[in-house]
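step=encode ok
step=design start
structure_in=
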């Protein structure tokens, strides 16, 4: 089946004929997101091509770092790596395969929001030259160090943090408490919670600062600057936030109390 193109004001979608409805919905959502991001960032690129792949094999072949990113992520987060952002292109699975990956209503909505999260990553890279895209070995290693920021900002700016609550609940049932900030294994699930907490405590401008700068003293320094607090105190607030987030999702206090968030904070 031949590839065709569907255009909007700022984006072009390349896809097969069966995916034309999905392509149009994707472009509409991206245009809405771009308008919102123009209020938060100096550089919000247009002229982005969205390539909708008909199979996971085609998607994985689009960029060699995508399979590596999946290997670095925990199994519960791998389903959400259903696309990859490049400087001028977004590579995503078509709607049929996104639906097959879903593990519930929120999971389905998050998967269908993959193009928006990927576009946020393009915007992040355009406003912070140390962040990918574009990609290379050094930038991929930086992605692994800052996955919580990149994926977390992608969730936050695309208004998808709450769609990952069920995944957060599942992660917290693991006997091993998550690290703070989340490791590359957990970042796809937990990264957005840091930005949501930051907005609640310090406001949206603090989120913009965190997303736009990589401090040379690493994640610890970035978090202390953004939250204007000590790292240990921020971690304590984050773990308390996770409990409350899970309570809102489950609405079962006894079950929430059994979740192990870890009593020891990071050194």
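sequence_out=
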């Amino acid at each position: 089946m031949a590839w065709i193109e569907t255009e909007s004001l700022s984006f072009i979608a390349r896809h097969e004929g069966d995916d034309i409805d999905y392509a149009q919905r994707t472009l509409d959502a991206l245009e809405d997101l771009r308008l919102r991001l123009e209020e938060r960032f100096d550089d919000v690129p247009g002229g982005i091509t969205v390539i909708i792949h008909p199979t996971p094999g085609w998607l994985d072949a689009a960029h060699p770092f995508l399979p590596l990113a999946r290997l670095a992520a925990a199994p519960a987060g791998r389903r959400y790596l259903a696309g990859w952002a490049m400087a001028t292109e977004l590579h995503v699975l078509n709607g049929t395969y996104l639906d097959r990956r879903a593990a519930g209503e929120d999971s389905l909505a998050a998967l269908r929001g993959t193009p928006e999260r990927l576009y946020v990553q393009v915007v992040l890279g355009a406003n912070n030259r140390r962040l990918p895209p574009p990609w290379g070995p050094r930038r991929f290693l930086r992605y692994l160090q800052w996955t919580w920021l990149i994926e977390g900002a992608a969730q936050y700016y695309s208004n998808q943090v709450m769609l990952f609550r069920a995944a957060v609940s599942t992660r917290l049932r693991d006997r091993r408490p998550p690290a703070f900030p989340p490791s590359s294994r957990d970042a796809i699930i937990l990264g957005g919670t840091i930005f949501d907490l930051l907005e609640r405590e310090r406001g949206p401008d603090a989120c913009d600062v965190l997303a736009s700068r990589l401090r040379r003293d690493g994640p610890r320094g970035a978090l202390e600057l953004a939250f204007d607090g000590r790292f240990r105190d921020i971690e304590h607030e984050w773990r308390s936030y996770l409990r409350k987030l899970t309570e809102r999702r489950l609405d079962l206090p006894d079950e929430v109390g059994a979740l192990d968030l870890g009593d020891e904070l990071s050194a």
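step=design ok
step=annotate ok -> DSSP finds 15 helices and five strands in the chain.
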